[in-house]
Amino acid sequence: MDARITLAASQLARMRGMTAMYHRRFFFDVNVASVLTVSLLLVGWWGIPEAFLLIPVVVLVGAVQTAFDASYLVFARSYAARLEAFINEAAETDILVAAKMEDAYLFPLGQRKVVTVPLGGGFSWFSFVTMFYTMLGMGSFGFGLALGWQSLRDGPPGLATVYLVTVFGLAIAALATGLWWFVGGEGERRLDEVLDGAFGPFDGD
């Protein structure tokens, strides 16, 4: 077998391992954030209302972490797609179609998207799950803040200001960076620059 195909196949196996790992990591992080959120609600209702104020922090950390997991999915899938196309061309076959299946069934690469929700069409169950957890997180953020509001009012002078500026400042920073990286396409542009240099321009076919 051509040494280039052997090398590409080994890299492809590595990238497929990464996609599997970061799918698992995504749901692990979602589950951790969910368990912590429910636990803090119970603690708050048990009689320590200050616990409610930790819920927005947990939600924010969970959102950033799961978006990081998604960024690695995009990383691994982008390289895997190029490797599949290279192997197919070198072996004169079309048998490697996982990248095309992922584009059609999960979410497409090379499109403007909110993390994994494409803005140009191609909505999928994967997109719905992303939106479901996002909306649930936003609701939990607001719910925790509302339940803990009295604790902020009753706390030391200036505490509410420091808390709100910190939490909302971090949330705005995360949102702005996410818009730049995902919606603006900066992350995929950087990947394409490297991959185009290695494989040439890619049309997905």
Distance between the termini: 24 Å
Number of strands: 2
Q: What percentage of amino acids are in beta strands?
A: under 5%
Mean pLDDT reading? 93
Write the layout of secondary structure elements.
Elements: H1 3-46, H2 55-91, H3 98-105, E1 113-114, E2 117-118, H4 125-154, H5 159-183, H6 186-199
Antiparallel strand pairs: 1-2
Keywords summarizing the entry:
205 residues, mainly alpha, two-stranded antiparallel sheet, 2 strands, 2% strand
Would you give an account of this structure?
The chain has about 200 residues and is mainly α. The protein has one domain. About 75% of the residues lie in helices and about 0% in strands. The protein has six helices and two strands; from the N terminus they run H-H-H-E-E-H-H-H. It has helices at about 5-45, 55-90, 100-105, 125-155, 160-185, 185-200, and strands at about 115, 115-120. Strands 1-2 form a two-stranded antiparallel ribbon. Helix 1 runs antiparallel to helix 2, helix 2 packs parallel to helix 5 and helix 2 (about 55-90) runs parallel beside helix 6 (about 185-200). The longest helix is centred in the first third of the chain and has 44 residues, at about 5-45. The model has no long low-confidence stretch (mean pLDDT about 95).
What's the quick description here?
77% of the residues lie in helices and 2% in strands.
